């Protein structure tokens, strides 16, 4: 079971914001150059996200691409120079992330419905 009751508490964390910014940064700089501690934090957060109903299956499929690469680096000791999820044509679908981020912040009338704490 997840430590979060639902996804709303999770998306209001600094860890979630860090993950989103990191994934976006990898779009422009795919180099593997951060600490294993950061990779473990992102990996574990994506695992938590998978336990929550807030994240649609198609978006979790995208996050799983990231988690799989992080797993390879952390647990299978693979040594890549760059993350593939951000550079390959079948890599992370940034449009799905963009749509989700917009939907979670605004209702159908474009009124803000969530404030990040």
Brief characterization of the structure:
The chain has 117 residues and is an all-alpha fold. The protein has helices at 7-11, 14-28, 36-50, 57-75, 94-105. Helix 3 (36-50) runs antiparallel to helix 4 (57-75).
Q: State the low-pLDDT regions, or none.
A: none
What separation lies between the terminal Cα atoms? 24 Å
Order of helices and strands: HHHHH
Instruction: Give the helix tally.
Output: 5
The class by helix and strand makeup works out as mainly alpha
Description:
With 117 residues, the protein is an all-alpha fold. It contains 5 helices and no strands. Helix 3 packs antiparallel against helix 4 (57-75). The relative contact order is 0.16.
Give the topology.
Layout: H1 7-11, H2 14-28, H3 36-50, H4 57-75, H5 94-105
Helix pairs in contact: 3-4
Which properties best describe this structure?
single chain, 117 residues, mainly alpha, 5 helices
């Amino acid at each position: 079971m997840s430590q979060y009751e639902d996804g709303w508490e999770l998306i209001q964390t600094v860890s979630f914001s860090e993950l989103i910014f990191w994934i976006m940064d990898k779009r422009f700089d795919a180099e593997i150059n951060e600490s294993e501690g950061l990779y473990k934090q992102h990996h574990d957060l994506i695992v938590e996200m998978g336990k929550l109903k807030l994240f649609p299956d198609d978006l979790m499929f995208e996050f799983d691409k990231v988690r799989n690469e992080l797993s390879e680096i952390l647990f299978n000791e693979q040594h890549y120079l760059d993350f593939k999820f951000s550079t390959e044509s079948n890599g992370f679908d940034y449009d799905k992330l963009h749509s989700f981020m917009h939907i979670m912040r605004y209702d159908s009338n474009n009124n803000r419905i969530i404030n990040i704490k």
